[in-house]
Fold these 4 entries.
Entry 1:
Amino acid sequence: MADFTDLGVKDIRDGVASGEFTAREVAESFNAAVADAAVLNAFIVTTPEHALAAAEKVDADRAAGKQLGKMAGVPIGMKDLFATHGVQTTAASHILEGFKPEYESTVSSNLWAAGAGMLGKLNLDQFAMGSSNETSYFGNVNSPWRKEGSNAAMSPGGSSGGSSSAVASRIAPAATGTDTGGSIRQPAAFAGICGIKPTYGRCSRWGVVAFASSLDQAGPMARSVEDCAIMLEAMAGFDPKDSTSLQMDVPTWEAGLSADLKGKKVGIAKEYRMDGTDEAILKSWEQGKEWLRDAGAEIVDISLPHTKYALPAYYIIAPAEASSNLARYDGVRYGLRDLPEGAGLQDMYAATRAAGFGDEVKRRILIGTYVLSAGFYDAYYNQAQKVRALVARDFEHAWAECDVILAPTTPTASFPLGSLNEDPLTMYLNDVFAVPASLAGLPAMSVPAALTEDGLPLGLQLVGKPFDEQGVLNAGLAIQQRAGFTAKPEKWW
Amino acid sequence: MSKYLIQGATGEWEVVIGLEVHAQVTSNAKLFSGASTEFGAEPNAQVSLIDAAMPGMLPVPNAECIRQAVRTGMAIEAQINKYSRFDRKNYFYADLPQGYQISQLYHPIVGEGQLVLDADEKGGILEEKVIGIERIHVEQDAGKLMHDQHPTMSYVDLNRCGVALMEIVSKPDMRSPAEAGAYVRKLRSILRYVGTCDGNMEEGSMRADVNVSVRKPGEEFGTRTETKNVNSVRFVMQVIEHEANRQVDLIEGGGTVVQETRLFDVASGTTRSMRSKEDAHDYRYFPDPDLLPVELEDDFLEECRASLPELPDAKRARYEIELGLTPYNARELTAEVETFARFETLLTEAAGTIGKPEAKLATPVANWALSVAPGVIKSIGDEASVEHATAARQAAILKMQDAGEISGGQAKEIFEIVLKTGREPDEIADSEGLKQVSDTGAIETAIDEILANNSDKVEEYRGGKDKLFGFFVGQTMKAMQGKANPAVVNQILKDKLG
């Protein structure tokens, strides 16, 4: 059996379309790779039959001379936050264990309609709350990467850690992710792959288990900028079932890709030069500037003065929304129900939610409940909303001076699993560079830039104007071409 | 009748009342889901994935519900807020799948308005009174728990869950049970006029939270209690009566009223405590991040305004001024949609049939519609088939009466036969002999005979005993078996008696 697992989205789509190989061969190859990589724990459930069925449909359509979709023949991993019809959907939580939706999320529907198939449901931090993929009820996800000279299990980042691990280890050519405060970009950076969070509203949230509704946004994770562009085109689109969905046509991002940045200005925000940022990160940031200048862009200094307040504001707004969004998991209609002998309704709620939610989820529900409580609402939630508006305004001002902003994706490279568990605040700091774009609803992408001295990937982040995914992708492409990032993790699994 | 005051041991007490009326919005689909809102379906037959709060489901506002709330606001002359927003009210209960109710706390769609209570001495409203309305907001209804289906478990029916409600909040402007009752009736009438709520209190389409406090006249407002989910006008009045007296007794007995939520017990007509302010929920309201603010365009508002029908107050004034109806008739006819609709249909039909302007016929038609026709229908009870009483048939009866062909009594008799059989009034009048005799020859003959047989009385009459005129009329009608046209009889008698 030929091995297709080094191929990306574009390679597979074009190869299937030209008849170089069949979609079925590709699906079989990835199904086998998935089965072989169980130790990574990237998948909560695998669905080889779904991948095969989709592939056979594509092969049959091709044989019949039908027009093939944007993702025809590409088997992908689906983050287990997207509802998939008849396939267990858990958000990596015990409280939804065994839950099989009677519906399909809009984003996954779009992907299936574009000819993609599903390899399985990818592990994640529970309810997408976490930055290391250690809060899943279904166990930690291992990064395929290891520090040079160490066998310590490393974090794939989070919350889309199953996605980053699967794509980096080549058991999936691409995967869906969701990003609330960095959950696509940070794991992409940790795993040496690309990931883009589009403008808020580009991808429908319908059928995606909600974490923080005003921030949640789906996006693709893949190994190249081109692959991200292709997959985002397939995922995005106006959805009347989501009131916050953008009523705009989906641009042809793939066709619009250009690494020529002549006439473009790239902003460098001084506030992103923070204490605690690794020297290696700062070095790669400098390198990134050079690459973009080489691509024809002008580098300009900008100021985003409210940056330091973004993370605290995020950790008020996101938990506040989560505390309300997660109220529906109550044991009444679906999912886990813990009904102690002789228990009343309140006892059932308490027992079900105590048993069903993990510690990090409980922590955020408690924070969110607190900041919305009478007497604290103005001091916390309202204040955080004001900060959010100021952060967004910083960016609006910046767009008068530049077209895209270059920043590090994370303050450090990946860390060993278990090393930050006792220190949630340090864990939260992982998203310090990612959160401002989330609060402002802006498109933002991480592309792999380099390896650290001990062989771990580092990412660079590009933040764009609202609706300007193209500008972000193009700058990403310019970096990709110059970084020449070809490193791949050595197979140890 | 004097002002409503409660006589306590320490003097008189005034009652202060505010009402929060929850009115189910008339629409085919729920507020944020496409599920049907029809009453009476099998439990859980009208539940969408959104209503059941399945993971990842999102609300999408139903524009028709927004439109209905705006039209309601316009009907109470309220300020329409072009910017409004939905908030989440968070609490756990088994009839609330989301764990929050989507409502509007901070920016309601309708601001201040008002409602006029008409003077109705009999009903305890001494003079016209304006009741302020604080706001109207739109929110989701909850589901229903059923405790009688299983020995140890409760069942949940989510059919009602997510149905759109308007919460119409009055100012604390009412001072008696009668005013509160009149307020609910008037509000219900307006809602039904504009078609934004069917006002069916038995089916739960309209229910009120009743806020009551007492104070010595002229003093500050006292502490109020809120009695929840009261579902008839009579119960609203009972709650106030009971609550006001309870509070007066409590205060005069040395106690204090605590701000609390109470429940009305229909069987005993009393209220009891549900929960006090101390263990009140902290609802943690915040703007619903799944929904964008509601921003209303001028075109939309114009369309809403243009779609409003003539409202009760305007209609009543028109009935009095243009149709010359008495204030009583005008009020009675305009109180309910069905009543004025029947009246206006019949008036149009009668004007066409008789060939006279509506203003000339309004009074007899009003009397017919308000008193004569309902009287006949009531008198024959089950034998009446109201569907036989078409406007055309009633107009035919009114035409014969207008022409003097039949008497009032005959009109009733004919209508009774119409109701029982569905036959045509003209045919009934002919075949049943229910017509007045206006043939002067026959009447003259009868009168001549009566005058001849009663020459003594004729002498007395001519001698000045005017009262005897009635005697002659009576005798003539008797001789004519009641079928003589009284006007003709009068005329001939006058001529003959000189």
Entry 2:
Amino acid sequence: MDNALASTSFAVASERPESTTARPLVNAKSTPMNGKILSIEALTVSFDGFKAVDGLDMSIDENELRVVIGPNGAGKTTLLDMICGKTKPTSGSIRFRGTELGKLSDYQIVRLGVGRKFQTPSIYEDLTVAENLEISIPQVHGVWASIFFRRSKEVRERIGYVAEEIMLKDHLRMKSGKLSHGQKQWLEIGLLLMQDSDLMLLDEPVAGMSPREREETAELLKRIANGKSLVVIEHDMDFVRSIAKKVTVLHQGRLLSEGSVEEVQNDPRVIEVYLGH
Amino acid sequence: MTFRRGNQAPRRKAVIPAAISIEETFVTFGIFVMQLFNGLSLFTILLLMALGLAIVFGLMGVINMAHGEIMAMGAYTTYLTASFIEHHLPGLMGVYLFIAILLAFAVTFAFGYVLERGFIRWFYHRPLDTLLATWGLSLILQQTYRSVFGAQEVSVPLTTWLSGAWEPTETIQLPLNRIFIVALTILVTLGVWYILHKTRWGLRARAVTQNRAMSSAVGIDTNRVDALIFALGSGLAGIAGSVFTMVGSTNPGTGQLYIVDSFIVVVFGGVASLLGTAASSFLIAQMQTALEYLMSGSMAKVAILLLVITVLYFRPNGLFASKVRA
Amino acid sequence: MNISAKQGERFAHAGLALLLLGLLPLALGPYWLNLVGKYLAFSFVAVGIVLAWGYCGILSLGQGVFFGFGGYAMAMFLKLEASAPELPDFMVWSSVEKLPFWWEPYSSLTVTIASIFLVPIPVAFIFAYAIFRKRVSGVYFAIVTIALSMTLVVLNIGQQGETGGANGITDFSTLLGFDIINDAGKVAIYWVEVVLLLTATTLAALLLHSRFGKLLIAVRDREDRVRFSGFDTAMIKAFIFTVSAVLSSVGGAMFALQAGLVTPSLIGAVTSVELVIYAAVGGRLSVVGAVIGALLVGFMKSYLSEHFPEIWLFFLGGMFIFVVWVLPNGLADLFRKILRVKA
């Protein structure tokens, strides 16, 4: 049991009632996706006629770490908003392991295994680090289950494991509002780890971090990516270079370029967008 | 010709005749027009109240439960002006209304300005606390009115040139004072629209409410703009109070009667949309008077509330809100 | 003195039990005990408001609706007993000839008590879940609830013959033949009420210490984040709103027994908002504080509105402003600071 907990699978030893009921449903509907965890087709959203994302096609492989870059207003955050159900697409399709996400509500999408980290750290400042992590345990989403929830040995071990992973082991009993900005960012990543999301959407995870914290975050993300898929929005090209194998460049809601860091940096269209004008 | 004070239509039982003669058609048509017109005077008060709220709540996100008491302040100002002119300058009685409206606006505008600077601004970003604190303020104002003016109703003399009715047909009588307040309301609404959308100040106000930090960075005194927006909203409530004295009499609880209705109007229309506010006051006022004609006043209120909740259930951002980025 | 938050809370609960079970019954005669009982009826609502507003950020200005429901349910039973085998007097005056069908269940005490606890559950839950699912919250929710309570008052007053109209339901004095007006009756009801109340405060404290209690805080502070952790936050909010509705209903029933009458004003917006200030004065984050707040404000209300009626509204209005401005977490916070309870 200890081995299972310590491995990167993040499986909890206790029952998984939510998952066991939800997953078969997914499998029943799913179509083979050739190792793709997410595939997006002709995705469009418009706000009062303004197309924030316009006919976008892209896909993410299982266990891939993808970085999305692009100038302001390129539609990066809106893209993540649509994947996780915060914004409903006007048209097009988003499929997660074969399940169409467009019609589901946000919390249902999360239960399928899609986690989202917001741009500004979004944690529960009035609760301790341990309580923050405890709330995010995925198996218990019901009201009654939460009331009669017991902090079992497995739960404590799992909280300890994730806390170590996000470098907050020594702060478990601290009110999370008192953490530094960088630590808050880590804690939010920790919430997603507790959630056991298979696809993690991270919006500028190193914003406001010191260079040292950035390095540690890069290491953290690389560790996570071993066994999960990540989509990371980032501006800092040094950071992008340190984590990314494949980069997607968005511009005005459309796909501009895709490839390795070197490829996109040498792509004349990308240079035009960033340096042109 | 009959003239009736108070904003209630003479209540008649709805009768559906088996066969309708031509005269009856005219009578029915007359009732219909009168009904529409009765709805209009409720509409004007709701609109003036709601305009102020739409500005304060819609633009600033401040919920002011004392808005109704500010309206009552306008009404009492009108009453005081009327009494003063009646006793000291009887020659001006013909135009006292114009003086009173200006005074009501000035008094409530000033009150709103002081209120924002000394009170409301401490509660920004705590909307529920603002609600409670302003509720407390409304209780204090109510008790103040009760102590100063007494618990009984006060009313103002009707200006002679506004008493009487315009009778386009035999069955239709449109009281002149109501025609006057409808015209006044339209004028005020257009004025607000002009101020917010066509003047430099309006541009600043909208800039501040959309992006405070940026507005401050380009040199707009955001504190002053906040205070002025709030003052303008209060001033509009003052005008609403002034208008109210022409169709009803004022007591310390008058404001409370309209505050929740006005909030419903604003929410129903979609906050931050002047056109929405206008359309929604019109709809709600017309429904209210029409339903009151058909059923009891209490059932009419229940019916409208259910209707509004149903509509909001399907359009949570209000009837006239546009889709915005989440 | 340095004590931990947990110890502090235990002291508070123990102190409350001591006060209600020991000090007050020993020190006060039946008249005063009855008055305390009346304020305690409001404290049920205040505890519900602490749960829903203090911990979950849901400000309902319509708690009077459920308070009124419980009160009317109890009063209907008592009234039927008082007037049996005739119709209640106000129905006779309004020439209602047959008992309205929705009165009939209330001739049984069992059904009455069951309905006080059970009827608010589906009503509050369905209403709240529908609204919260549409992401209507904050001040919008407050406005919807205040409008509802105002509307129900109008409706209630309008149906004079079936509800007693503006006069409400009065003139009853026995419960199953047992006199509730005399001293022994008043004291007995006080004990029943205190036991119910202490049960409620204990359960509320346990709820707040469970994982669900942490979830409430999480929903209050970061509802988005909770949804993106896979929770149906509308369900969480509707649940706690329902709990507070049941508490209000029980409080209303106790009020009817203590006061010997119910009136439409209990349902109204003014009562509903006043109830919020009871909780706010005691401390929106303290279950015990809410009870103490209800006792204090209730006492001030009786005293001031009797002796200085014109001052009462100034006082109440001032208290709204003072609590929000100076003491947002109420008296409980003041005590925490004095006793140096660690956060």
Entry 3:
Amino acid sequence: MIRLRLAFLSLALAVAAGLSAQSPDRQALWAERVNCVVAIEFFTETELDRRPTEVFGVVADDAGTIIFPAAAVNPRVTASQLKDFRVYLPGTPVTAYFAATYLGPDEYTGWHFIRVEEKARPRLVPVTRFARPGNPAPAIAEELWGIGLRKKDEDFAPFFLSSRVAIIQRLPQRTAVLAQDVAGQGMPVFDATGGFVGLTVGGFGQTFVQYSARDRGGLPVVMVNPDESSAVTLAEEVLPHLGRVPQNPEGRPLAWLGANGLEPLDPEVAAFMKLGGQTGLVVSEVLEGSPAEKAGLRERDIILTFAGAPLPLYKPDRVVAAYLDREIDRRRPGDTVTLGVLRGDQRMEITATLEDAPTLPREAERRYFDFVGLTVRAFTYADGAVRRAKLASHRGVIAHFVKANAPASTAGLRMDDWIKEIDGVPVADFAGAAAQLAAIEADRARSEFVVLVDRGGETAVLRVKLK
Amino acid sequence: MLSGLLLLGATLPAEGAMKRGFNRLLDAVVRIDVREVEYDSGTRRFSAGVGSGVILDANGLILTNAHVASPNAVEINVTLASLERVGARLVGWDHWTDLAVLQLDQSEVSRRRLTFAHAAFGDSTKLHPGQTVYAVGTPHGLTRTVTRGIISNTRRYFADAQGVRGYETGSFNTWLQTDAAINPGNSGGPLVTEDGEVIGINSRSYLGADNLSFAIPADVARRIMAGLVRDGVIRRSYIGLVPGALQDLEGFYALELNTGLLINSVDTGSPAARAGLRGGDILLAIDGRPVDGRFPEQLPAIQNLIASQPVGATLKLAYRRGTENREGAVMTEPLESRVGEPWAFEKWGLSVRSVSRTYARENQLAAAAGLIVIGVQAGYPAAVAGLARGDIITKIDGQPITSLDEARQAYAAYEAKPAPTLVETSRNHRVSLYVLKP
């Protein structure tokens, strides 16, 4: 333990020495703030392997709650496949780490939450400690700084990054984009006085044009840095939500309206429709049995107001779709929402009562049959919606995983095939399919079985040879 | 030595006859230059191509490939063996078998006193693998090129959903496979025996492979040619079955060998679906005629049996579901391509195709209505508004667009009095609105 702490101190000093020339108190700010970030490692257990993921986390409170960005977890995996969460302190030998428990995802913020074991907590400082009163936004050209972390082989050593604010936009969260990378992905950013400014967000690619000596036309190439970022979601969008700790690993309840494909109106169209400088969202689909359908919302209705207020105007225009999604995600099942819609030439108000979303594919029951080389999972509402299948036809199971070169894949089964019949017997539900496949797998005298699958609305009979 | 001479002496007259037949064939092979209109860039553009063909009667009827001469052709010129060029018109085409029939401009032929030979069909059902054959045509524009090879396979099966310029091909026929060198430009030229009998129409090759080439057999070509000459089109019936080969599944379905056709899928909303058939059923007989779809090579004949019924005919289908034998009746509908009719609205800089039943089904659209955008011209109203390839136009100025004619009317109104026009589209089931501004 003592050795660890010494190692940490020596690294902090080394970094501080490099800084002292420009800004005498920044080394102290740095040393304090490094304690609000960690490196996280966890394993995703699949049918065949155990894949490690490394991601950076931010300490949310004194109870050992740590958040990390959504992109670190594959949306196809269930919470029970996420194993063995480990928390590493930056710059500390990776042989020493702390165990953590996965708490679940939060749909609204996109964060995943974990809780680290108690003995680690005294060494962590919540990022809230550095909040400034009123969470003021940074100014254009203001210099900000942040923390990046090296990889595991370098003990996740922290390093200093800084840049200046180039532009501030609403996307729909207020977001500052800086001239260069300012911190690791999902990591905190501070101002000159050490005040917390926000967390970086990923996915801000820069477009480059790649030229070659032969092809002078050049190809546009989007470059994304997976480790560091130059875009910062501001503190006002972060701090109020750090308390949204999920109640369960599934992140339930999930507020659900059931209006899909919300497409923003082009400003030219809004002007043509004489909407007076307002924008709108075209409802492409109203899902069967959803709160939106029950409330009487229809396909091609144009949503103009939400909760009594006109939809805000954003640039780019399509950000307004994310705004409405977030407004729904922020609420809870049982809450009512009022939409002002334009249907033809008629304006009307529609009040819907949000419900808890139907089971998601990631929550659906599943089972792997190793000999056949197939994971089947329960058919969910979402599976029906993407296939445009009526509720009444929501039976069968989904081929969730098909192992290469095993009997199922040799027969032509593919991931996301909809299995409707096994051995000529219609599949009623997951339990029935699982029992049938278990019996097939247990019967070593069996030479084959036959499945009827639906792929893109066309069915096919596939013969799975077991011998 | 003597016997050798004798043999030589004996073969001479036969060889002479063969030579005459082959020379006559050579005089019947033509080069075809086609100029045609294309719609896919937001406007009408012209393109040119070269293919081959063979004259098959004294009135100047020429057989070639559907991918050489389509209804988009605006100008067809034929170069005869005499090197004279003469105009021709399209009599009809059939992309399913990749065949088209042209006719030489007879008034031009008689005015210029042009002469030509015509070839005759051989019997493609009597061919055997290893038999020597010749391909004659215009590979890469090299007029009157003869290449030699053998029949590699007499009954090759492949169906290609987009094989003839995006149109389906191969569902209703098998193909002759040959290793005679066939290159781009050979298309539509004849595959012939040593004595010049036309036993196939060369159609396609595997690019990058060594001489794996395919021809439509003469027995198919003869039938299609007669149909095109008589009606200008080949009408086929559709009931909506997607067949599969039973191959080794007989045991599972408790069937005798060589009995039945596996129904892999039944098209939603098709006559067969309405009659209650579904994927996994086994078709046993059509109007009392037993079907045998054990192997993939047998499928085209069964497909053709269904397709050759008159449109609107009622067919009795005997089929098996599980262990139960059932019967159903279907009324046939006209077979349609998945490729709808194209058009270009030039002042909008917008090219479209009508949505076919197949396209609607493949894309899970509620109905076969609307127009697919297949191209926009940069800087024109459609492109400026943001329309893009793949959008499906569902309404114009609030009026539902179910057919090309409705869109033509809307466009005519725009042409008469250009004004901002509201267009509703759907793309991946997402509805968007655009304004086309003059």
Entry 4:
Amino acid sequence: MATKTSSEIIRDGLWDNNPALVQVLGLCPLLAVTSTVVNAIGLGLATLMVLMGSNLAVSLIRNFVGESVRLPAFVMIIASFVTCAELLMQAYTYELYQILGIFIPLIVTNCAILGRADAFASRNAPGPALLDGAMMGAGFLVVLIILGGIRELIGQGTLFVDMHLLLGPMASDWVIKPFANYPDMLFMVLPPGAFVGLGLLIAMKNGIDRHLKERQKTLQPAATPGSKRVRVTGNVS
Amino acid sequence: MAFVQQSSPHAHKARPTSKVMLWVILAALPGLLAQTLFFGWGNLINVVWCIAIALASEAAVLKLRSKPITFVLKDNTAAVTGLLLGLSLPQFAPWWVSAVAVISAIVIAKQLYGGLGSNPFNPAMVGYALVLISFPVAMTTNWAEPALLWDKAPGFGDTLATIASGQQTAVDGWTMATPLDEYKHKIATHTAEEVLAHPTFGNGFARGWEWVNAAFLAGGLVLIGLRIISWHIPVAFLGSLIVMSLAFGSNADEFAPLPLHLLAGGTMLGAFFIATDPVSAATSHQGKLIYGAGIGILIYLIRSWGNYPDAVAFSVLLMNFAVPFIDHYTPPRTYGHHKARRGFSGGGRS
């Protein structure tokens, strides 16, 4: 397997192969907890941590674990890191941990993590694997935050509400209320709003990609016709 | 001696979509008139506002998609979506509720799926369900009190000002719970007689609502007479609702009686104007019967045991989900061919 350069890994994780927008993996937590920015950051950071840890660990043991038992081994590693994340959240951000509830333990089942372990970490050296975990996690986190922001803004008319749950008392007055008297729009708070929001984000990404591609096409000089000789008859035997 | 000879297949003039939709709009006018007569100017203002928003948002999306704007707008389908929403939203619904409903109907439910003919769900009902879920307060407390137009408290100016002010709820004295809502919430603790004493029921079935429903029924019959819609969906819809009500609703102290089911909610509007949307409904006649009956059954189930007093939007959307399935099992026989094969059975004659 051809090794990727660092810049390719970064580009892949954040844009070209973004776990949420392109692979569309890990939808369950993505749709369930992105109702506010703080929930999105909480889950995104936990996922990022687990993804980096599991990628590193899987890469380190890649030469010692046989093909037949690799998936159970990966799941064990991921479960251990999820337990770490869960205990850390209980210790430092207990209220947020309670809000996110079942979706923290459920990070184990996030296909994006197992997918990266199997598709990348188990075939690459620890360095690139760690970078891949960080970039995939960051790509996931960014989408979570954007979706959380959209849903929070349209759903309840606020931004950055309850940030102190994650960042301590200094963030308690970060909340922005752009509209006075905003009537809550429950549709965006409920899961269907997440589906519509994610669909629009994916559409936007595809639109940007297409735009870039077309611009690149116009920048390239058109191939000059007639400069090559082409064999048009007979068969080469 | 010359006979006038017509060659097969005796094609007659095709009716363009714009004409069909124009007839739908005309047939809904008696209902709108009845609504204005009994519930004030609210519906009329809503209809105008919703149609304006519908045309504007359709034009905006068409421009983004680089499609011919006037050509598509002339097919009148966006206007019909706006009209249906204007007819079904509460009379004092604030302007932004109608706007959100219409924009999500046209932009999300219709154009994002590819425009007319490609939308799997009834656009108007997607918009209605979305605002009903999103703004439960604005959608339940803004129904006008039924009274004749000239006796009503809010005149045209006051109604317009209330809608334009954007407040969540209108003045308390102008509004009243809908009959189905009232019945649903009172019947648990009262007898049917006590519930029906409430002024919203009048001395007939449901004051004002009965005339609105009768007007939509008349408009719907005109549409059937003109062969704009076929009888299958409305008949199956109303028939299954009647059967369900006779089977389960004989005790008026438990569930709303049959006349209320037929004449108090959005039943007639739903049966003749909403469920019959040719794009999102089933295709074959047999399929239409199943589709209509499904809607009628779901309406009764949700009204009687669900959380919502009326259920036309949810029932239509749920049956829209089932339409590909229904169509798969009810292909019509093509002229000159044997009976079509059903579903996946395969083999057999064809």
